[in-house]
Design a protein that fits this description.
heterodimer; A: alpha+beta; six-stranded mixed beta sheet; 25% helix; disordered C terminus; B: mainly alpha; 12 helices
Chain lengths: 428, 276
């Protein structure tokens, strides 16, 4: 049991590539933290640095209050589950699970007892004398977990442990991982590129992009209050719809219509009109006939021609085209899509996706009225990517950082929601 | 159909020719080893009168038994040391990024293609001044030197096939680098170790040039070299029969080795080749 502190941890490879840039994250004892991000964002490198498999170039890593930068993996008391499981092919399941204890010179009786216990809890008792090659993928995965559990380490590190399983098994194992972590109450750092895993498993999710921490927050907060354009676009499936907008004292003008501004957004309004990117999640659209009269004034009703309608039983997805004015931000949005691992996202396309109640009578090809919830709009600064509609508690202007501006990234936060730490001085 | 029959016939003929070219001399040696000294010049392929005399002669004479033991001892020791060092060197070559890695690989390659004859005279002088001449270490050391590059190449190819993550897993499980090597990597590379051991042993076993140049008595002379020093029953008889018998005796272990480990040897040679 131990807490873990990443303090300005940086990884720079000898060729100068910056894999992780001043990552700061406080992981409480017993917390389940997910590192999520597109491939190449530095999440696995971060995990390897925590494990001690890669050196930390700059910054400090403390586990249980002790600086472990220069400790070898064996002295860090952490267990790791690898994406490929990395089971030792020449050892039986029993030997695989007991290997770490054997290295630690634990008495044979104790090893046997611990392995048997772990095997029971994972349903591996009948397989103990088999070799990994004779196990199915799911069983191998459980052995890899068992190998981590028997050690009773102070923290678990998981490197995409479920990505080699088929979809059904993945959902099942996801539940098991979650139960396991709750039962053991051990600190766990879990790396994934799958946002569903990230949102369902973690106490807190840390979103990384190009080696920079974007936001670390509980899943719901991440979804509802993304601090910047990247987090907003990365979290959620189908992803958020983006369009251009203009913000001035008169209100917010977007292709769907005009609306008054409210809440924290009002602070951002100045006399001069200001270009913004506006995001709206698919579920914030609705068939107006299904919206009660007292809610309807909180949104905009607009006309759209339905291109495609997908009925999934519990929900209906409708796609419609609209002049979203995205052309202005095509570079930003394309870069965002590329960073988010969606090469063919159609960043420039003018298609909007909406998730409607299945009770809707809207049909394909029809020109219909749709309602968008104005309260759920996210307004982003095109230059920094910062979400202007999210209140920035204790926001303080930090010196302008041209690099962050260009990438639309926030400054690294201390592990708490990073809102307001952007280079806002250059904005307002 | 006609073509395939003809192809079959063609291949069959080619195989037969190859077999005859390779097998006739071997069978001729075997046949000679069973002939009496008087019948050595007899042109018939099979001996008219079979005799074990040549075998009993060499296996009771110290001029062959002692070299045979030397061969076994020197071969085993050189092989063991070469494979142990080669596995460590190969691990470093395959897994670690270190300064001078290319130099080591290039040096190993250079040694393995170096003409041995050019080393005989310097080695002779060095070994004489170090009192290594005509001793077991005097042969073991050069054998290791020439066996190592081959073993390094073969083992490096094997190590490269072992997933890197296994080593990381071992490290996280609490293994020191040495434990990760001995308990995880080396056992997985065991087939490669066996292959390289066989090839190094065969090299030591067959080696003739050093064996004859760096020894002077049967105290360190190996079997192939000893053959050259055979003498006949009298001053006027040629030792053809005993030489043939000795040749058969030292070929038998190689034949057994190759037939048992054939697949290993081929895979070892090719993996080394691809790597090289």
């Amino acid at each position: 049991m131990a807490d873990m502190v990443l303090d300005q941890v940086t990884k720079r490879y000898p060729d100068g590539t910056l894999a992780v840039d001043k990552l700061s994250l406080n992981i409480a004892d017993g917390e389940f933290v997910i590192l999520v991000g597109p491939s190449g964002c530095g999440k696995s490198t971060t995990l390897n640095m925590i494990a001690g498999l890669e050196d930390i170039t700059e910054g400090e890593l403390r586990i249980g209050g002790k600086v472990v930068n220069d400790k070898s993996p064996r002295d860090r008391d952490i267990a790791m589950v690898f994406q490929s499981y990395a089971l030792y092919p020449h050892m039986t399941v029993r030997e695989n699970m007991g290997f770490s204890l054997k290295l630690a010179k634990t008495p044979k009786g104790v090893i046997n007892q611990k392995v048997t216990e772990a095997a029971q809890s994972l349903g591996l008792t009948d397989l103990l004398d088999r070799k990994p090659a004779n196990l199915s993928g799911g069983q191998q995965q459980r052995v890899a977990m068992g190998r981590a559990i028997v050690r009773d380490p102070s923290a678990f590190l998981m490197d995409e442990p479920l990505s080699n399983l088929d979809a059904k098994l993945r959902v099942q194992m996801r539940l098991e991982v979650s139960k396991l972590q709750k039962r053991l109450g051990t600190t766990m750092v879990y790396v994934t590129h799958d946002q569903t895993e990230a949102l369902t498993l973690g106490d807190r999710v840390a979103v990384l992009r190009a080696g920079v921490l974007q936001q670390a927050a509980p899943p719901q907060e991440l979804y509802e209050r993304p601090v910047n354009l990247f987090v907003a676009g990365f979290i959620g499936s189908p992803s958020m719809n983006f369009m251009s907008g203009t913000l001035d004292s008169g209100g917010l003008r977007i292709p769907l219509g005009d609306m008054p501004v409210s809440g924290s957004l009002r602070q951002e309004v100045s006399a001069a009109s200001r270009e913004v990117i506006v995001g709206i999640r698919p579920e914030n659209f609705q068939d107006p006939s299904l919206v009660s009269a007292d809610v309807r004034p909180h949104g905009i009703t607009f006309q759209a021609t339905i291109d495609v309608l997908e009925s999934l039983g519990a929900e209906k997805y409708v796609y419609f085209n609209m002049d979203l004015g995205k052309a202005k931000y095509v570079t930003e949005l394309e870069e965002l899509a590329r960073d988010a691992g969606r090469a063919d996202s159609g960043a420039a396309s003018e298609t909007v996706v909406a998730r409607l109640d299945p009770a809707t009578r809207i049909s394909e090809g029809a020109e219909v009225q749709l309602w968008a919830d104005a309260r759920a709009l996210h307004v982003f600064d095109p230059a920094t990517g910062r979400n202007l509609s999210v209140a920035a508690p204790g926001a303080k202007a930090s010196p302008a950082d041209p690099g962050a501006r260009r990438r639309g990234a926030t400054s690294p936060s201390t592990g708490q929601p990073a809102s307001g730490q952007t280079s806002s001085s250059t904005v307002s | 159909m006609a073509t395939t029959t003809r192809q079959k016939a063609g291949w069959g003929a080619a195989n037969a020719v190859t077999f005859v070219v390779i097998a006739i001399p071997l069978l001729w040696i075997a046949s000679l080893s069973f002939k009496t000294p008087a019948a050595i010049t007899d042109p018939s392929f099979w001996p008219a009168q079979w005799t074990w005399g040549n075998y009993s002669g060499i296996l009771t004479s110290a001029t062959f038994v002692r070299p045979l033991l030397n061969s076994i001892g020197i071969g085993l020791i050189a092989t063991f040391i070469a494979v142990v060092f080669a596995s460590m060197a190969a691990y470093a070559v395959a897994r670690l990024t270190m300064p001078g890695k290319r130099l080591i690989v290039a040096g190993a390659l250079l040694i393995s293609i170096f003409p041995q004859i050019s080393l005989v005279t310097p080695l002779y002088n060095i070994e004489r001044s170090l009192s290594l001449f005509n001793t077991w270490p005097g042969l073991i050391i050069p054998y290791i030197a020439f066996g190592l590059p081959m073993a390094v190449y073969i083992l490096a190819a094997f190590f490269q096939q072992i997933p890197w993550q296994l080593e990381k897993a071992a490290k996280v499980d609490g293994a020191t680098p040495w434990q990760a090597f001995t308990k995880v990597i080396a056992p997985l590379a065991a087939p490669g170790m066996v292959t390289s051991a066989i090839l190094v042993f065969m090299f030591c076993w067959n080696e003739f040039l050093f064996a004859i140049s760096l020894t002077s008595t049967t105290s360190a002379r190996t079997a192939p070299a000893a053959l050259a020093f055979f003498s006949g029953g009298s001053q006027f008889t040629t030792p053809t029969g005993p030489i043939a018998a000795a040749a058969v005796v030292i070929t038998i272990p190689i034949i057994i080795f190759v037939s048992v480990f054939q697949r290993r040897i081929v895979s070892g040679l090719t993996s080394g080749a691809v790597k090289g």
